[in-house]
Amino acid sequence: MISFKRFLQEKYVDSRYSEWDLMAQGYIPINDWLFRDKEKYIPKTFRTSSIEGLKTLVKFQHQKKQIPTFTKGSYGVSRGAVMIAECLVELSGKSALELPLDAHTVFDRDGKRWLNPIYFPKIKDQWEITIGNEINSYFKIPSEDRMTLREIYIKVASLSKNGKRDFISWYYKLMKKMPLNDYLERAKEHLSSRDTEFKNDEIVLHDYDIKKIWFYEIPIYDKFLKENDDMNDAYFDSKYDYSNDFVKKEKKKEFDVWFKKLKSKFPKNIKVCDAFIIPNVVEKIDVSKGKYPKCK
């Protein structure tokens, strides 16, 4: 059995975005410190994750890194967005931003979330003109030679390390002066009328604690088989169409031992539930109505 420290040090998904990258494209930062006056404690919220992604979630507990979570499930989130959903995580933490629908926020290398205005017609045009004018002024570009956002990106990308650092500092200072609350309220109006399979809300959480973890039934059996070559070969040679049927009827004792070792890799204050779940259960979560899985 590998140690939990080594478990955390194994490869996990990281962001390809730096701050200047997102700023040069006109993204709106939703950092907790920009909306501190709206911050509140969220006692129960959920997140789907890949099994590998759990390492990142556990590692960044009690930090300012932000993660999207939900209190109302949907078809989309129950199957996974950026990563395939293989487990469900219950958390508590602080949030300064709650959106009525999944806004597909992205995160930078520092774990902070950003909103892409291009997805929100109610703010897109005005924001792009405003932020474009501000950045052109920063670079002292004459109005007749005004750069487009595409040209701005090329310009910022060509800056030196110190130049990028100065641009990042300037952009954050600018954001403090911008009426971000007004823009976000209009973005929320668009989200409320959006037709999407991701009808879950989005709670941007930080300083979080992981309370419980449920594994999806088939993915956890698949992981067990992939980590045990002989059993995996036996499954493919068997009469069973699904891994859960094979494991339950042929390898139950071996799986129980393996699963016990997997659970032991997590800190003692995180409860790994023995019961497994399916996507339909996650899809129907609604914390406001008391509808969510319980550990038995």
SSE order and pairing:
Layout: H1 4-9, H2 19-24, E1 28-29, E2 40-49, H3 53-59, E3 67-69, H4 75-79, E4 87-99, E5 106-107, E6 113-115, H5 121-138, H6 149-157, H7 161-177, H8 180-192, E7 202-215, H9 217-226, H10 229-236, H11 243-250, H12 252-264, E8 271-272, H13 279-283
Parallel strand pairs: 7-8
Antiparallel strand pairs: 1-6, 2-4, 3-7, 4-7, 5-6
Description:
With 296 residues, the chain is an alpha+beta fold. The protein folds into 2 domains: 4-208, no CATH class; 218-268, no CATH class. It is 42% helix and 17% strand. It has helices spanning 4-9, 19-24, 53-59, 75-79, 121-138, 149-157, 161-177, 180-192, 217-226, 229-236, 243-250, 252-264, 279-283, and strands at residues 28-29, 40-49, 67-69, 87-99, 106-107, 113-115, 202-215, 271-272. Strands 2, 3, 4, 7 and 8 form a 5-stranded mixed β-sheet that branches. It has a 3-stranded antiparallel β-sheet with strand order 1-6-5, with no helix packed on it. Strand 5 (106-107) and strand 6 form a beta hairpin. Helix 5 runs antiparallel to helix 8 and helix 9 (217-226) packs across helix 10 (229-236). It starts with a helix and ends in a 13-residue tail after the last helix.
